[in-house]
């Protein structure tokens, strides 16, 4: 159970960093691109599964929020509460 909670913490931190850097992926220095690639390889498959069930929420003209990240965050927080 402790390993699951540690993995959930890792995923929460990774999700935060991923959400902040995703728009600037092409400008990340080569030193950190490896770490970002590792986070992407872990998070993208998980987010792709959730994107089949949860569509982006329109918040303006041509602007939408990706709800899959919110759903993943809520699930990870629930794991930590167990």
Automatic annotation (TrEMBL):
<keyword id="KW-0472">Membrane</keyword>
<keyword id="KW-0812">Transmembrane</keyword>
<protein>
    <recommendedName>
        <fullName>YGGT family protein</fullName>
    </recommendedName>
</protein>
<keyword id="KW-1133">Transmembrane helix</keyword>
<feature type="transmembrane region" description="Helical">
    <location>
        <begin position="63"/>
        <end position="81"/>
    </location>
</feature>
